[in-house]
Write a structure and sequence with these properties.
Layout lengths: L2 H25 L2 H42 L1
Helix pairs in contact: 1-2
Length: about 70
């Protein structure tokens, strides 16, 4: 999965998780609140994975550019 896909899925899971928690709070459903909390954390993890992939790609790109400059 690409970094953008991870971030999009992460944002969606975080939003859905927050919504589930709100609905669970409004209806008194501990199960729904729990599911929402888990889904929100999953979304935050997906976003972090997307950020890590971006950082790794940037580091590789910088290293490749430095290697090209050194070879010239």
């Amino acid at each position: 999965m690409g970094s953008t896909t991870d971030k999009i899925k992460g944002n969606a899971n975080e939003a859905i998780g927050k919504a589930k928690q709100g609905i669970g709070e409004a209806t008194g459903s501990d199960r729904l609140k729990g599911e929402g909390a888990v889904q929100e954390v999953k979304g935050k993890g997906q976003q972090a994975m997307g950020d890590a992939k971006d950082a790794a790609k940037d580091a590789i790109d910088r290293a490749a550019a430095a290697a090209r400059r050194a070879a010239e």
